[in-house]
Design goal:
By secondary structure, the protein is of the alpha+beta class. The protein has five helices and eight strands, in the order ββααβββαβαββα.
């Protein structure tokens, strides 16, 4: 496997390889804000959380690594994020499947999660590019991706059929290796402002 399935610890959060031991805390986290009700988000319902975790564990066998996000201050699991569509041959990866409890949105949690994931993939695994995708109408997610310093690459029109049968246009962003130093500095500055 290109990416080691291991814990990544930061000042504010710890990214733990997802497991069934996280089930109850992830159910509690997803209930805080009920994000599964957002039509443009792909967040599991509480009763689907065990299958979500089991699918993530199976996906790790293909090199796609999912993390439960632990808030170091409260010691609670507050959401998930992952590397997916890992392409070792081309040293590219996507970061996504990110969702958080409402109580930690607009805090240092997401900023440090992304800093840890990006630092790991660019500095430990010598990636050449990281991609982010979101629903084109998910303005909150798009703003968060842009605040990271990712560049807008374009829109994949009619890219996916959603659970309700509607068609999703997907906004695509990326950060390439040459941009990592400035993105890292930006993330550190943002982290200092939110902490």
């Amino acid at each position: 496997m290109w990416i080691e399935n291991k814990e990544i610890r930061g000042q504010f959060v710890t990214l733990e390889p997802i497991g069934l031991n996280h089930l109850n805390e992830l159910i509690d986290a997803v209930k805080d804000g009920e994000s599964w009700k957002l039509w443009f988000a792909n967040v599991p319902r509480p009763e689907k959380m065990q299958q979500y975790i089991e699918d993530a564990i199976d996906d790790a066998k293909q090199g796609n690594i999912a993390y439960a996000v632990r808030n170091n201050k409260t010691n609670n699991i507050v959401g998930t994020t992952r590397y997916y569509k890992v392409d070792e041959a081309n040293r590219r990866v996507m970061i996504g499947y990110t969702w958080y409890a409402n109580s930690v949105r607009r805090t240092s949690v997401n900023t440090e999660c992304k800093l840890l994931l990006l630092r790991e993939i660019f500095e430990s695994y010598d990636a050449i590019a990281v991609e982010f995708r979101t629903h084109s109408k998910n303005t909150a997610s798009r703003s968060a991706i842009e605040r990271l310093g990712a560049k807008f690459d374009g829109v994949l029109r009619n890219h996916q059929i959603l659970r309700d049968g509607s068609l999703r246009d997907t906004a695509v962003y990326s950060i390439i290796a040459d941009e990592w130093d400035s993105v890292k500095e930006n993330l550190r500055n943002n982290l200092n402002r939110t902490s």
